[in-house]
Design a protein that fits this description.
This protein has 104 residues and is mainly alpha-helical. 62% of the residues lie in helices and 0% in strands.
Length: 104
């Protein structure tokens, strides 16, 4: 996340999950506290709220409708290539259904 932020992309990720009580050891200060401060502002809450309509439906479609909930290959590069294949087929399915809807 720090590399992404250094490239000028705004990162909005909650450092404290809903399932855990309290803070994780070593996650109190620095980048984690900056993220908490950013998400506690009105602008941060509004930007994070946009995830519901832009990003989260993609994961729901892939995980629940297409039943892809784990990687079949081991290793970072193998998982990355598998994820790229999954997202490419997701986009192709969207284009195909859009094309079918427009020709009908």
């Amino acid at each position: 996340m720090q590399q992404i932020a250094e490239q000028g992309i705004e990162v909005l990720a909650p450092p404290d999950g809903n399932m855990r009580e309290g803070k994780r050891p070593g996650w109190e200060n620095g980048f984690y506290q900056q993220m908490r401060d950013k998400l506690s502002t009105d602008r941060g809450r509004e930007l994070y709220r946009q995830r519901k309509i832009t990003i989260e439906p993609v994961f729901g479609q892939i995980k629940y409708n297409r039943h892809i909930d784990r990687f079949m290959r081991r290793g970072r590069s193998a998982a990355r290539s598998e994820w790229r294949l999954v997202t490419a087929t997701h986009n192709l399915l969207k284009l195909h259904s859009h094309w079918i809807a427009n020709t009908a």
